[in-house]
Task: structure prediction
Amino acid sequence: PTTGAYKIAYAASAGDSAALSQKLLCQLQDFSAVSVREKSLKEYLDTKGIPSSVCCDPTLLIDPSDFLNMKSKRLNKSKYLFLFMIWESPDLISLAEKYAREKGYQVISNKRCLPFFHHCRPEDFLSWIYHAECVITNSFHASVFSLKFHKPLLVTIQKPNGQKNYRIAELLSDMDCLDCILEKKDVDRLNFPPIDYERVDVKIQEKRQISLTWLKNSLNQQIDL
Result:
């Protein structure tokens, strides 16, 4: 039911599912402005007659320097590879350990590493990425911050159920970083692809500006009512 309140949805996400329940679709009708994170979700909402825009994840709205001010101090004196996994992957663990041995790095893992368990606050998460020699992950936000902090990066988008994490794939595609995706057949790859971080910074700024403009315009509509 319509409440009469002015409501906007900023960068809403349905994960890798582009289908919403009828109840949720009815609730969205009550919003004055809707933006989503995934292009596939926007396309789905278009078919349901719900106008929306694509805006970036909120973490991309904030300048990297602000996150640098938030991060904790360096937490490990040795050079290390940061392995951050949403779901534990034996292939990623094997790849990380093999690469670390070759380079003489320590592996800091969020799944099986005591130093991480002792330092796992949000500000520590930023520090682990910022001070890492390189990052291997299957996490969207670890990918985001690796790009913001200009880290060598390898990402797997394969989920345990066989589906792909299209949210990460879309991010890397938008940043022209598809070479960072580690396919199943490439699990023995030991080379991190070169990343044009000047180009990445420009693309992040473009997405940030589009999203901020949408947010300001949506808020200004309320003021004008």
User: Anything to note?
Assistant: The chain has a mean pLDDT of 90.
